[in-house]
Amino acid sequence: MPSTYLELCNLTLRRLNEVEIAADDFSSIRGVQALVKDAVKSAVAKINQAEFEWPFNAAQETDTLIVGQEEYAWPSFFKAVDWNSFQIQKDDSLGTSYKTLSYKDRDDWLKNFRDTDMNSGSTGRGIPDFVFSAHGNGYGVTPSPDKAYSIRFNYFLNFTDINLSTDVTRIPESHDSVLIDGALYYMYMFKDNTEAAQVAYGAFEKGIKDLQTLYINNTASIRDTRIRF
User: Based on the number of CB atoms within 10 Å of its own CB, is 106 exposed (0-12), middle (13-18) or buried (19 or more)?
Assistant: First the structure.
């Protein structure tokens, strides 16, 4: 389980040889203890912004489609989606089996399908075959649904802000050392200790690269995409 906000702050303060924060005082602290709260937040944000698809940010969403509606908003804290994961769910009451949707370019939908979908009005056209990127923050399906089908897809979350002492990040506890190196960097920057900040930043950057090697750069196979003429 990830460490709490309070635990991360106190781990950082311990490395700085500063007084730790009592749980009851967490919301009202001042001085260096208040600065360390900001430093931990910044380190969490930096790690999460380093990659779109950290596995510890993986999530799944199930939406109920609205008859005649083509476009839908992303869930809260959405960051990136797996377009290959969209699937209509089996529902005996609606007469549907599992059905994977294919990705369609938005321009293709605008040119070839939008008018037909919109002309169907509030009745819809049928079971969707394709999914596309909506204009703005969301996705779309075509044909426009004629029933309240359930659709499921995989996506990755953006980081959520931590405020309470008991709040946790989604970064596993085993990687607290990376997060603490980041918090130390920001603390040294606050204190104008450039030399110590550079050392901490080097450790922080190396820690992030190690996480990328562990979680991201572990391709199981490589496909040759060269074309023979």
Answer: middle
| DSSP of 171-200 | S-GGGHHHHHHHHHHHHHHHTT-HHHHHHH
pLDDT, tens only, 69-102 = 999 999 999 999 999 999 999 999 999 999 999 9
Report the predicted TM-score, pTM, of the whole model to 2 decimal places. 0.83
- Please list, in sequence order, all residues whose beta carbon lies within 8 angstroms of the beta carbon of residue 172, skipping any fewer than 6 positions away: 2, 56
Instruction: Sheet with 138-142: list strands edge to edge.
Output: 71-73, 138-142, 130-133, 102-103
Degrees to nearest 5, angle at CA 43 with 38 and 44: 100
87: phi then psi, degrees, rounded to nearest 5: -145, 125
Distance, CA of 129 to CA of 141 (rounded, Å): 7
Q: Are 200 and 193 in contact (CB under 8 A)?
A: no
Dihedral through CA 126, CA 127, CA 133, CA 136, nearest 10?
60
